[in-house]
């Protein structure tokens, strides 16, 4: 399996717009540095890893959803077995993972006002009751600060995309004004996987939204593969080339359409290729 190096977009550079345009148009997967959310990302990861590794069953039960389905809180155990849906490039599915979902803190207020954008059938599916569930105040503060920081970064990236595509930073303001962004914390449990061979952790798919930002936990990124659209070959993203503090940014199907095909939505998957008999570390990714 050949490795590849993702393009790096430096948001502090004078030509950040040109860097983003080039990376999104030629590959669709890139890592971004100097994004300005380092402290929030670090604190969020620390509290989440502590929650998953050290939290008592009672603590996890207090924030776990009571029914199967996507929504704020730690998902019901059976939920991930049913988490399957089709995308433009394959069918999304995961294995041996627990998800913790954090939704826009304003969703509950929107739903209470009966805003149809958030309270209709789609809103019920994606947001549930719209109330985030946190085990304690410190955990809540870290996650909400992280959410707000990523929200601001997302708006900044959409302004850069507007400049890159139509020379207008405000071109997509109508899209970001009423966004439906969630933070999905995917936690792959240590040592879980099929013995004796590679294990599919996330199946081949493309993302359905505009953009996806991913912050990896302390064990870093591992097993991410992207498909070369010319040859059809799978390429392993080498974690040794990962810049410290970088966030992964990939383009989704909606942004591909919004850009009239200029920005690429690239098929990708996650395969655990840890040799048999070697301990598999746990993995945390904030998506």
Give the helices and strands, then pairings.
Layout lengths: L2 E2 L3 E3 L5 H11 L2 E5 L4 H17 L2 H7 L9 E2 L4 H4 L1 E4 L2 E4 L3 E7 L3 H6 L3 H4 L1 H7 L9 H30 L6 H4 L5 E7 L10 E7 L5 E6 L7 E4 L6 E4 L9 E5 L1 H6 L9 E5 L10 E4 L1
Parallel strand pairs: 1-12, 2-3
Antiparallel strand pairs: 3-13, 4-7, 5-6, 7-8, 8-15, 9-14, 10-13, 10-15, 11-12, 11-14
Helix pairs in contact: 1-8, 2-8
Looking at this protein, list some descriptive labels:
287 residues, alpha+beta, 8-stranded mixed β-sheet, 5-stranded mixed β-sheet, 10 helices, 33% helix, 24% strand
Offer a quick outline of the entry.
With 287 residues, the chain is an alpha+beta fold. It has helices at residues 16-26, 38-54, 57-63, 79-82, 107-112, 116-119, 121-127, 137-166, 173-176, 253-258, and strands at residues 3-4, 8-10, 29-33, 73-74, 84-87, 90-93, 97-103, 182-188, 199-205, 211-216, 224-227, 234-237, 247-251, 268-272, 283-286. α2 (38-54) packs across α8 (137-166).
